[in-house]
Amino acid sequence: METKPEKSLNFIHEIIEEDNRTGKYEKRVHTRFPPEPNGYLHIGHAKSICLNFGTAAKYNGKCNLRFDDTNPVKEDVEYVDSIKEDVRWLGFNWEGKELYASDYFETLYEYAEFLIKKGKAFVCDLSVEEIGKYRGTVTQPGKESPYRNRSADENLELFRKMRSGEFPDGEKVLRAKIDMTHPNMLMRDPILYRILHAEHHRTGSKWCIYPMYDFAHGQCDSIESITHSICTLEFEVHRPLYNWFIKELEIYAPQQIEFARLNLTYTVMSKRKLLELVQGGFVSGWDDPRMPTICGLRRRGYTPEAIRNFADIIGVAKRDNMIDVSLLEHCIREDLNKQASRKLAVINPLKLVIENYKESFIEEIDAVNNPENPEAGTRKISFSKVLYIEQEDFMENPPAKFFRLAPGNEVRLKYAYIIKFTGVIKDDTTGKIKEVRCTYDPDTRSGMPLSNRKVKGTIHWVAACNSIEAEVRLYEQLFTKEKSEEVEEGHDFKENLNPSSLQVKRCFIEPSAKQAKPGEKYQFERMGYFCVDPDSSKDKLIFNRTVTLKDSWAKITKA
C-alpha cells in the first residue's frame, strides 16, 4: 500500500529537534499562546494558535494559554471570553486552566525592585513626550534623563510611593538603565512601569502601576518555564531587550524564535484598524462575516478543520510574505464540498411556467444530498407547473456559447426534465421579462426512456408551490485593494473599503431547509456554500454566503 510522504520539518521544528537531540531543556517542549485581551482574535492569530498548540502536541509537550493583561485601559472580560471560545472552537485546550500576566504582578514588581537595587532601573519624572524627544533617532543617539543618576535608595522610595498611589497618572515612570546611544532604539532606557489609576478586569483597584508589555512578556515566559517562545517577526527587534532583562534579573531563559506573521490579500490584520471598523460602524461588529476575525469567519460558515488545514498549507516562514486569500477560500471549499448537504435555492428569481404540465399536479423527485458522500442518501423535492429559475439562466438574445435557457435552446432542470423555450411575457410598462414559458419532455426524467438524452446545459430551480422565502447575505472581500493596509500619506485605509462587500437579497429555497438550524452549512447548488446565521429563527431564515463555488472574485479583480 502506498504511504503518504512525511511532511518536512519547518525551521522552528528543526530547532526543537536539535534542542531535543542535545538535551537542552531536558527534552521538554513547552510553548504558549499569549494574546492581549484588547480585541478579538483574527486569522493571523489562528495561525499562531495552530503553530503553538500544534508544536506542543507534536512533541508531547504543553502549551499555555496566557493572557498578557498589562493594560487595564484597553482590556475587557468580553475579549478574554471570546479568545477562550475561539481557541476551543479551533480544537485546542489548555488543560482547563488559563494563565494571566496579572497572576505574576507581585513577582514582576519584585523583579523591578531587584533592578533598582542593582542600579539598573530608575524613576524618571520626564513626561512620555519628553522621553520620546530624549530618545533620539535612528541616526542620532539619545541623551540621558536628568533623573537617571538618582540613588538606588531614592529610586526605591519613589517606586514604592508610585505603587501606593501617591502620584497621579503620567507623573513618573520606572525606566531601565541601559544605553541611550544604543543603535536599537528599544534599548534606550525603556519604560518598565507606568502609573494607571484604572480598574483591572482581574485585580480590580489593587494596583495603580502596571508593567509595560515588553517588561512583562518575557518574564512571564520565564516564570512559566516556557522552552520555546514563538513570536511573530516584529518581536525580533525586541529580543535583545528581553535577553537583557533575563540576564540582569538572573532568571531562567526561554528561547525566543520569530516567524513571519500572516498577511492576506484584500484583508486588514491590524487589531487597531479592525477596532476602528467596529467602532465606526463600517461593519456590524467583531463577528461581521466580512471581518477576518475568527468569530467572523465562524459566523460566515468557516470550519475549524478548514482553518487548521490552511495554517498547515501556508507553513511557517522566516520572512514576511503575502498569502492570496483565495487559498483560504480553497480550503473551506474543499472541506464543505465533502460535508455540506445540497439544497436547491434561487436568489434572483424568474418565474418559469411549463405549458404542457398538469395544473395543480405536484410530483416528488429524488435529489442527491451530497454526491461526495454516498452515505448521505437522497431527499424528496417537489416539481410543479410553476417554477422559479435564476434570472441569469435565461437570455432572450444570448451570445455565442450560451448553453442555458434561450430561444432555440433546450436545457435540463437539475434532477428533473429537459425543457424547451416557447416564449416570454413582459411587463407592459417597463418591457422587463416577468415570466418565461416552455414545454417539457416527460420521457427525460431519471428512469424514463429518454433520461440519458444529452443537452448542453443544466440549470437549477425550485417549485413555486411550496418553496420558502429566506434572506441571503452575499459577501465579497471587505477591501478592494490587494494590500489593504498600505495607504499613501494623507490617505486612510478605509478609503479602500468595498462598497459591494455585502448584498442582501430574498431568495426561494426548497422546503426541506425549513428545519435548518443556526450554524448549519449547505451548498446551494450552482450558487455557493451558505451557513445559517445565528440570528435566524423559524419565522425568518437567514443564510450567509461562505464562499462561491469558484474563485470568481480573484478573476474579476485580476482581469
Describe the structure.
The chain is of the alpha/beta class and 559 residues long. The protein has three domains: 19-259, HUPs (Rossmann fold); 271-341 and 470-557, Ribosomal Protein L25, Chain P (Beta Barrel), CATH 2.40.240; 345-460, Ribosomal Protein L25, Chain P, CATH 2.40.240.10. The chain contains 13 helices and 25 strands. It has a seven-stranded mixed beta sheet, covered by helices on one side. A seven-stranded mixed beta sheet has the order 19-16-17-18-12-15-20, with no helix packed on it. Strand 23 and strand 24 form a beta hairpin. Helix 11 (304-314) crosses helix 12. It is elongated and about 100 Å long. The chain starts with 10 loop residues before the first helix and ends with a helix.
Give keywords:
559 residues; alpha/beta; Rossmann fold; Ribosomal Protein L25, Chain P; 3 domains; 7-stranded mixed beta sheet; 26% helix; 22% strand; elongated
